[in-house]
Amino acid sequence: DPFVDPGLGKNIPFMIGVLCGGIIFGTVAGFVSMVPYMMKDVHQLSTAEIGSVIISPGTMSVIIFGYIGGI
């Protein structure tokens, strides 16, 4: 008994959703991985500045939304 129903591959709306999700995920992952290089080459920022600019907003959002969510 397969974990995922093989019939899902024939469900066109589902497959379009999976394809769109993959494209969006790849775009976001590529953007996130290229931002530090852009900041280094275009804006001549140091490694410490790049790290603080990229890590600080994510850290702050985890703290704030964790507090709001009650974790």
Folded structure, characterized:
The protein has 71 residues and is mainly α. It has one domain (7-69). It is 75% helix and 0% strand. The chain has helices at residues 12-41, 47-69. The model has no long low-confidence stretch (mean pLDDT 90).
Question: What are the SSEs and their pairings?
Answer:
Blueprint (H helix, E strand, L loop, with lengths): L11 H30 L5 H23 L2
In short:
The mean pLDDT is 90.
What is the H-and-E element order?
HH
What's the helical proportion of residues?
over 70%
Count of β-strands:
0
User: Approximately how much beta-strand content do the residues carry?
Assistant: under 5%
End-to-end C-alpha gap: 37 Å
- Low-confidence segments, given as residue ranges, are none
If you average the pLDDT, what whole number results?
Answer: 90
Q: In DSSP terms, counting alpha (H) and pi (I) runs of 4 or more, how many helices?
A: 2
- Rg of Cα set: 19 Å
Oligomer classification = single chain
Shape: flat
| Structural class by helix and strand composition | mainly alpha
Largest sheet: none
Number of domains: 1
